């Protein structure tokens, strides 16, 4: 049986160094709140507000370290509330996506693009993928056994020496299945 831990990902933002400087002040360094499942990644103590055409969401967690582009990952429910219609995309694929206003304690940034609903995916360390015969970008079927078990289709395999085994779904998906971070999923094929 091919099992993988589940990580339910709430709304969050990845920021560039330049945007960190605008939002928090020149030379500001994000402080680690807690380490995440992927090596070197962390939830920062700092949060920001995001503002869309219909509403504002406060205390949106920043994930570090800084990235080469700013990206906001929200659920479909968040998108309805904010009044935007982002596509479902893999992280980093932000072309032709909507933007939002991001407000920090020192300044704000108006993004032209960068808002996505993250495509469900599993991070595989190369050794795990090799053991199970899984290729990078392969689409998988994965069963979760929460309160309301279901099978997720089109789960993207992301394979790298830099990754640790973990399935990422958003809060809408986690709530639909009644699963939480730390639960176990089974890769069917």
Automatic annotation (TrEMBL):
Residue ranges of coiled coil: none
Reactions catalysed, as given in the entry: propanoyl-CoA + phosphate = propanoyl phosphate + CoA
InterPro entries on file: PTAC (IPR008300)
Keyword Zinc: yes
Family: Belongs to the PduL family.
EC assignment: 2.3.1.222
The keyword Iron belongs to this UniProt entry's keyword annotation: no
Any Pfam family hit: PTAC
Annotated function: Involved in 1,2-propanediol (1,2-PD) degradation by catalyzing the conversion of propanoyl-CoA to propanoyl-phosphate.
Cofactor: Zn(2+)
Domain of life: Bacteria
Keywords for this protein: Acyltransferase, Metal-binding, Transferase, Zinc
Protein name: Phosphate propanoyltransferase
Enzymatic class: transferase
Biological pathway: Polyol metabolism; 1,2-propanediol degradation
